[in-house]
Amino acid sequence: GPLWNQEDDDTRVLPHRGRSRKRVLVLCTGGTLTMSSDPSAQGALAPVQGALTDYMSSMRELTDDPEMPEIVSHEYIPLIDSSDMGPGDWAVIAQDIATNYYHFDGFVIITGTDTMAYAASA
To answer: Residue 122: which of 99, 94, 102 has the closest Cα?
Structure first.
């Protein structure tokens, strides 16, 4: 049989606690998704602080559909190339999830692909 009953509203991980939409926390360490035209690099693509947050806030499919969850994004400062990340960085991500666990219904971690498997294990 199915793992969950679609008609049973009690299958949510966390109730909305009076909110009309679920909430998802996006934690971004850097990587390709943070690349944008950087004026200080003569317009070349480079990691740009705030680029991902700006891009996501302009995505109508995320903002105009009331069925979509509320997206809260946090970009770490500075953005880190994933090949420069280590256990301390992964511990910060894990701690940030633990700290925010009861305030969000889900989490998305955006990182470069060089050490993604290590970050996922944290």
So the answer is: 94
* Token pair recorded at residue 68: 């979509």
Nearest of 89, 90, 81, 76 to residue 25 by alpha carbon: 76
Cα–Cα distances in Å, from 9 out to 12, 15, 70? 7, 9, 19
Catalytic residues: 32
Q: How far apart are CA 27 and CA 93, in angstroms?
A: 8
pTM over 0.90: no
Strands (E), 1-122: 23-28, 35-37, 45-47, 70-75, 106-110
Q: Among 13-17, 26-30, 105-109, 111-115, which stretch is predicted with the lowest mean pLDDT?
A: 13-17
Q: Element (H or E) spanning 23, and its range?
A: strand 23-28
The single-letter code of the amino acid at 67 is E
CA geometry: angle 72, 21, 79, nearest 5 deg: 10
Q: Would you tell me how many other CB atoms lie within 10 Å of the CB of residue 73?
A: 18
